[in-house]
Each structure stands twice: as structure tokens, then as C-alpha cells.
Design brief:
Largest sheet: 8 strands, mixed
Order of helices and strands: EEEHEEHEEEHEHEHEHHEEE
Strand content: 25-35%
Number of strands: 14
Radius of gyration: 18 Å
Shape: globular
Number of helices: 7
Amino acid sequence: KQKYIVGLGAGVMDYLQVVDSFPVINTKIRSSEADLQGGGSAMTALVTLAHLGLPCLALTVVGDDPVGEMIVRDLANHDVGTKLIQKSTQAHSSLSSVIITKQARTIVGHYELENKLNLQKVKDSIWRSALLLHVDGHHAKAALQAAKKVQVLGGLVSVDGGHASPDIDALLPYADIMIMSETFMLERSKQKEIATQMKILSQKYHPKVLIITRGEKGVWYWEDGKVKKLPA
């Protein structure tokens, strides 16, 4: 039977603008570039995997509005399956404004639909078909329930942790793959030595893969009992 990568997280539309420098309060500036792109950590991962030829299904919730239609259409255009996407009339679709310079970026996100995903609408056959479940910390209650279901049925669970929170910590015992940001590591512990924290995570949860993303500084990963590094 067909196996899938299931991505559970925020389905977002990103409005990106590239500027020379961040705007000063109460001024107007012009951007050199602008674009609308689908966003959200889990959804972006699905697009990447779909381009690598893997069958993917998006599990998220959008509003009954034009932005929601754009999010679904954008995923479908990248060959990500959209049959599991739920539609809500209770709130607007998730939207982010992303201001980008050569040195950095700032994101303003609007998530009215957070925790509105209803897992009872998902058939059990989906979990039996899930080769891997990838979650990004959004829709936390549903993500935890899904992780438990997939693990029991023999699938893998991948957790993308951007910021430290009790919701992310609850997912870690089920994570076969941990892709955590440097921000997550620094927020989670007073111990600022990332290599030490990686060792602690590895010994406590025993993930098959442990990666720390560090922006322009590249990534660190745990292998053979030590930290290894890759440049950005």
C-alpha cells in the first residue's frame, strides 16, 4: 500500500518584502522585492520532500477565505496532497508578514486557527499509511495525539522545534528525528553550551537523528557520540 509523509502544523501564507534596512517607526519605505509564498515549518518541509519525489500529505486547518484558498492551491502546485486539510469558518487563515534584509529577517505572524485542528476527522487508515509524521509544534494537542498513533503503528515521528515550550517538550519522547533550532536550545536551558545540551537530549530521548539549526552558522548534528558541524 501507498506510504506517506504526513506533515502536521501551521498552514500559512507568507507576504515577503525585501528592504535595504528595517523601517523606522512612523516612516514609509519601498521594498526592492515582494512575493507571496506558502509558509509554515511543517508545510515547507513537505514541499521540499515532494520535490525530492516523496508522497506527502498536509494536515492543517485554513479559514474559509481567499488566503486559505491560496495556501491549499500553493501546496497542491508543489505536489503535496491536500485531502486532509480542514476548513474553518470560525477564524481567518494564518498569515505572516516577513521583512527581509541582507543581514536578517523579522516575522509578524497571525494564527487565529491555532489548536483548531480536529484529529477525529482523520481516518485511522492515514496513520497506518504514515511512513513518517513531521510536526512543528503548532496544533499541539493534535500533534501529540498523532505522534502517539504513528509510533504505535510503527511509523517514525519527526519534531521541528523552533521555540522552547511545554508543548514541544511533550513531543520529545516520541521523536525519532529531532530538528531543533539554536533558539530552542538557548530558551530551554540555563546551560548555554549547545554541545552539552545535545548530549543530554541524546541520552534522555535516544533519537535516531538529532540536528540543531543555527541560521547563518549552519547546523550541528549528533553522530557517534559527539557533535559534528556543517556550514550554512
